[in-house]
Each structure stands twice: as structure tokens, then as C-alpha cells.
Write a structure and sequence with these properties.
Length: 288
Amino acid sequence: MRNFTLTFSLLLSSVLFLHAGCSSNPYTDRSQFLLISEAQEIQMGEQSYAQMLGDPKIKISKNPAEVDPVQRVAKRIIAAAKRSKYAERAQSFNWAVTVIKDDRTKNAWALPGGKIAFYTGIFPEAKNENGLAAIMGHEVVHALARHGAERMSTNSTAQLGLSVVTIALGMGPVGSELASQAVGLGVLLPFSRSHESEADYIGLLLTAEAGYDPRESVRLWQRMAQSSQGAPPEFLSTHPANETRISDLQKWMPEAMAIFERSNKASVSALPIITSPPPKKKPAPKQH
Ligand SMILES: [Zn+2]
């Protein structure tokens, strides 16, 4: 076992060495340190996506009233991404969009490689297709800007992430337990402030370019903040709604509005009403 660990560490070091590199964000010029190759990252995204959809607890919506608005928005956001500074990466992604029928879960994510999922529970916060676009623009930028890979490169998860890939490539038996950790690429771990800010800024521009009113993003985050006063949405544990986020969006709004004004505007409709079921019952407090 010790030999295996040693061999594995050496292997890991050489993988780290081979793939170490710096790049910078084409919009913000922020430099990124990346230990994971794009192909590895996409493989982790694909694997996480397959695993999540394979979960028997997941129910995929087939209701056109829920699926169509998400598909319409995705089509425009993806097309805008293909015209953006991420055009090359957006072209190479194998995009797919899924709506998960779960009125209780307020969440949405996009994984490296372009796999997007929206839970119906987030519809009340999104409210309309402009709101869906604001969430999707933000999430898609996390994937396009390689924030997951960067996060894995700069903390201890890097080692875990690479093990996942190694295992995914058929090199080890510990498979699925570790693979489930790859979900951390885009779903479970909170992004850093700089990643959040970058996703807000570029997401705002992408949303406007796709023909959606960027001003809805401010209202969206206000609704998020509002709903966090009860049971906080899952989305907020990875994307905190705070004053800085909203004031930054307002600061960037003139730039986004200029893009929106000359865009091919989307027709926007309200989302179907989802009445979130009450949180799962806890035992009632004892009466005295
Ligand atoms: Zn985010």
C-alpha cells in the first residue's frame, strides 16, 4: 500500500508539473493558476453530470411549461457565449440543459464542458426569462472561465480532483466515492469572492448580449436575498446574496445596457408558478 501511495504521489507530481500553467481572464485580466488541463476538467464535468442524472432521487421534468423557457434561454445564452471572448471554448463544449423537477430545491449550476441544470424550485426567484438568463449567464461564466479548475488547483482539492480523473481513466478501484467529490467543480463548494464577482460581471454582459434585460439581475438578487430570510436557497450557500454584489451589478449596468440596446432582444415570458412546498417536517415542539 505504501508503495502504491508513493508511486501515486510521484505520478501525481508529474501530472501536476506537466499541466501547471498560468493564463489570464480575457475580460478582467485576472491571472489564473491552473494545474488541471481543460480536457481533465471537462471529463470531471461530464462524469459529475452523468452521476447526478443517474441518481434515482433526481426526477427530470418533461413538462413543456417548465422545460421550454429554460431551453429558450439556454439557446440564446450559448449562442452569445459563442460570440464572446470565450467563443473557442464555447464552440468546443458539448452543451446540454436539464430541468430537474424539484420544487423544494432552489438551485442551478453549469459544469465544465457545458452541462447546465435548473431545479424548478428556483423559478420563484428567477420569476421570468430575464431572471433565468441572469442566473444562467452567471453559471455559464463559472464554466467558461474555468473557475472550478482554478479552485481545484489552488486548494487541497487539486489532489482529490486529479485522483478522480486518474480513476475515471481506469487506473484505480476507489471510483465512485471520489468521483462524487468532482461535483465540487461547480456545485457543492462556494466560489471565492473574485470568482463570484467575475461571474457577475461577465455574466451580466453575456445576458445582455443574448438579448435579456440585464437590469433583472439586480431584482433577481434582491429576490434571492428576500427568500434567504426563511430557509436559505441552496443556490445562496454557493453564491451569497450581498450588498456588494448588487452595488457592483449597478456599477456595471451602463456597459451592459449599451450591449442590450443594440442586441437582438428576446421575447420574455413569466415562468410557471411554483409554490414551494413547506420544508420537510421537523418533529413539533412538545406542548406543556
Ligand atoms: Zn457564482
